[in-house]
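Work package 3, deliverable 3.1, input record:
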Amino acid sequence: MKIKLFLLKTAALILMPAFFATAQSVPVQPDEISQSRAAEAWSKVYQVFSHPRCANCHVPDDNLPRWSGPSYGKTSVHGMNISGGQSRIGVETVMCSTCHAHSNSDEPHGPPGSPVWMLAPVEMLWWQQSSKQICEQIKDPTRNGGRTLEEVAHHIQEDELVHWGWDPGKGREPAPYSAKETADFVTLWANAGAPCPE
Amino acid sequence: MQINVNGTQHEVDVDEEMPLLWVLRDELNITGPKFGCGIAMCGACTVHINGQPARSCSMPVGQVSGLITTIEGLGTPDAMHEVQAAWVEHQVAQCGYCQPGQIMSAAALLQMNPNPDDEAIDHAMSANLCRCGTYPRIRAAIKAAAQNIREKSA
Amino acid sequence: MSTLGKITRRTFVIGSTAITGGVLFGVYKYKQPYPNPLEKNLAQGETALTPYVLINANGVTIIAPRAEMGQGVKTTLAALVAEELDIDVQNVRIEHGVPSNAYYNAAVLEEGVPFPPQDTSSTAQMARDFMHVPAKFFGVQVTGGSSSTVDAFEKMRMAGATAREALLLAASAKLNVAKNTLSTDNGEVISKDGQRIAYTELASLAASVELPDDVKLKPKSEWKQLGRPIPRVDMVEKCTGTATFGIDVLQKDMLYATIKVNPHLGAKCHAFDTNNAANMKGVKAILPLADVGAAVVATNTWYAFKAAEKIDFDWAKTQYAQSTDELFESAIAAFNEEHQDSQNRDDGDVDAVIGAAGDATIHREYRAPLLAHATMEPMNATAIMKDGQLDVWVGTQMPTYALSEAARVSGIEAQNIRIHTTYLGGGFGRRLEMDFIVYAVMVAKQLEGTPVKVTWSREEDMTHDSYRPFAVARFEGVTQGKNITALDVKVSSPSVMESQMGRLGVSLPGPDSTIVQALWDQAYTIENYRVTGYRVPMGIPVSSWRSVGASQNGFFNESMIDELAIEANADPIEMRLSLITHQPTRNVLEAVANMANWGSDVAENHGLGVALVTSFGVPVAEIVEVVNTPRGIKILNVYVAADVGLAIDSRNIEAQLISAVNFGLAGAMMGEITLLDGKVQQTNFHNYDAIRMHQAPVIHTKILENGERIRGIGEPGTPPAAPALANAIFAATGLRMREMPFNKHIQFV
């Protein structure tokens, strides 16, 4: 039994990239069970991406970070007239790193931090976007940093600023699940053909 | 650990999490940068790290690397920076407590943007709070300093 | 004409203003000057000429004994002396000096008289002058009430002139020439034949001169320094980080401390547990703070902050209002005869006119919340108690009380205590309180021999203020045509005086005029006009906040007047002018109308609002211009006209007006202190913010000098800001703000 499992796992590992490759080049014919599992996986990914810890910085071309979530009460743009500017890192205005250090502030209501702190690129808009809209964006190489979906999953798993979403410091509700689980949801969903909701 | 402040190397023995502000004020007796809030919402603690503005109340000293400049290093009464000279010319300060932070933010702004318009000033300076409301004179002094600096380098 | 050899007299007689009524308090006793505090600590070769002038071989020192908190008083007061002394104020050393009854503030009580400021009859003027008598007997050295320049104007010029006379007498003796052949210029006495002797060289000789008491002051036309902008003497240090605020004081081997006091303000601390805090890095000691909390002493303020967070406290609760709703309920519950505090105005027959008007009467209710002072520099003080001596370094607005409180708490006699008054990183009335001084002395006492700087966290500062009171105002008004025929005003709030003076152990009898300040004493003549104040029983600590009662009452009154004008289809400015005969007040209103082009077409979505409030004797009119954008209200311009009677330094006055306007706008837009479970909810600038660069409007100022006497300007620019903004918002949107802060109902961009 153990050997069978081992072989299955190995086969899966060997074959998975193949699935991704096929996902990019040839439309997959997903079966019905896969489709509902894929939809479920995507909805979890959407829960993460639309969560304030992520969406607050995946903002439109007004370049204004948002303050939203249970700890803020009402939703607003970042206080003190802070704007990320076109650079998305505050070069034209005030550098994000002026206040945001490499780690979260220990003080209640102090600034969160991460080794890198900046707005997501403008094309990676998630703020007030629907599940369908984010789904289409994440699959579009012109809007996801030129990534394959495997690379997207990898990015979620490895990137320090992305990780901050699950370790946002005192008083802030973390994004749901974890970086690894979210990467796995992306992988599963991608394997099933990355279907977007209607 | 070692830190470099205003050109001088210092050895400090403190918790790595201690904010730079308190290392400066209480360990090194450099009291130009001020304590106003401790959560980067007032800007009174603003210093430069490698020329970039930083709210020293929210920078753990263990994360700081590079050259730190405080208001004292920007200029002295006998050798003021152009921004400080413009501040004096325009009689900007009232109580004066927020002004070291305002000046450090303004000096950093002018490094990046030698000719800031009102919108740029609004974006760069609104994180520096002044309870005395000296904003109109801060704005005028920034523009005057910008002009002086441009003329000097012309 | 040598005057040497006469019995020297080192004291200084108060100015020669005739005081009638002083007989009640003993004219002789009143005329006795306080001893000169400079005499006690004269160094070798130092001479004190009046309590305000100190000269030694190195130079001239002027004592400017008021708190420098940004209002420029260090410069202005020193300039008053320097002008008469004939020395450039930029060339003298200026010190705050020791706390002393000799530096008492005579003018601060002036506007507490039962006469509105527009009343300049001889009776009213006598009453104001008369207030100098109890002021002197209280001997309180206080910076507040927009009174420093008013108080110093004659007194300190007299000091300068007296010192100059003494120097001339000394020079006359030294040169053996007649005094009337000598003149002075920029720190030197000059003889007819061109000899110049510096004041520093004459100091010791002047010490043995009898100070004259009949000196004449320069006429305004001869002023070389006063009457024009004077560069502030503290400006360079404040722009280079070299100015010492209380929080910057450094002493050898100093430790750093912070405090935690019961957030149920006024209630005790049952007990505290230091198990999780005592062994934290840098902690030297955790000490009890009487029965109200604890102090952590450490090698660094941040270590103290961190350890303080880990102390477990068992706090007692308070018995007064525990929530914001309960606060306002307590105000409403005080609108009855039992709680009536004053009725400073009752002209005509308000009840009859309102009765006759019936349903046509306009009823309005307005509210204002508690507000924190939120000075940029959090509360702090540094102290050392050693060998029966106590030194305290602190930014305080009340040095003589600081001294007596330090004595009370330490058990050390006042003569062995030195209070060193530093710069204040903002006062606004907060630094009238004694708590931060008391706590620092308590800590120093337990650390005998070691200096300690006690710094409050911003959270402790925000939640342990003595707040601007909450208030509810109820108006009933009747208009006829474009006229207001009746106005009944009822306002209910806790008493600032009862709370503030109570903390100093002083019980003041009688009503608290700050409850009705700016309601009963305005320039409006309305035939049937009644103003009644109601006092809410003491609860949460309240205190003087920049412009005191006028800060909330200005909003109430000027909103109501505006609502009545609009109901009557009258232009708000014309309506106000029709009610005012006092010319200087009319002038500020007309001036601001001119500045704002009032009456000309207003652009779409723009709105102009006007307000006129007289406080501390200064009429100030403001017009605010807003634009209603899709994202919210933007404040574009504020026009301010103020009459200060006599402008000594127009640039400084303009700075004060700009400051006061921004301060008032911040409170109106976003200031609110709320209570939950008996504790203040706001802890830092994230939930108690103030106006910032991007929201600050362009402010246009005009200074008028029609008033009858010189006035101060620290506060009067604040009260009109909120109502002018509310009136502008109404003009632009049709939305009427009846409670502050306005961001409860609208957005500001």
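The longest strand of chain A covers residues 66-67.
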